[in-house]
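Q: what sequence does this backbone want?
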């Protein structure tokens, strides 16, 4: 039991670290890129393909790399009006069901389809099709499987936590 708890906490720390030290600074970069694009467009009546692409690249990075962190902090979308009224065991059952039948299969599909896609993009040295666009587009594509892997790990941890709650042996102290 103690080794399971340590493993869960270690994996939690990975997503916590990524969310705090990689994704959070990326949000500030995203804000700076958007601000720069607005200033360029409206103050100087110009724009750059690189900056426009950078905007959606950084947004995609934030979204994908922050998914596991969001799941860790229960910031994901669900119908809280019903969930919040349930006791802890019912919530654990809903979480277990959701992870086993929704999250794991969707992560499996994304991981098995995007990993070969990223490998091909890397091998051909994929770049933006627009002149002046961002080189090395395969780096952005690589965030897809990495982000889904982090979300899958966090989902598996939620599954383990939920199973222990259903068994009457929660890993964390009762709220």
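A:
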């Amino acid at each position: 039991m103690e080794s399971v708890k340590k493993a869960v906490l270690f994996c939690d720390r990975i997503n916590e670290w990524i969310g705090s030290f990689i994704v959070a600074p990326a949000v500030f970069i995203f804000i700076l890129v958007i601000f720069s694009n607005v200033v360029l467009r409206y103050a100087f009546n110009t724009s750059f393909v690189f900056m426009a692409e950078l905007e959606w690249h950084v947004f995609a990075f934030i979204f994908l790399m922050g998914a596991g962190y969001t799941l860790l902090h229960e910031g994901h979308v669900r119908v809280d009006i019903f969930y919040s009224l349930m006791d802890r065991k019912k919530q654990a059952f809903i979480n277990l069901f959701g992870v086993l039948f929704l999250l794991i299969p969707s992560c499996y599909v994304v991981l098995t389809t995007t990993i070969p896609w990223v490998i091909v993009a890397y091998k051909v040295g994929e770049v933006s099709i627009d002149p002046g666009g961002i080189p090395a587009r395969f780096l952005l594509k690589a965030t897809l499987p990495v982000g889904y892997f982090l979300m899958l790990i966090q989902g598996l941890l939620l599954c383990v936590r939920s199973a222990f709650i259903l068994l009457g042996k929660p890993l964390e102290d009762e709220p």
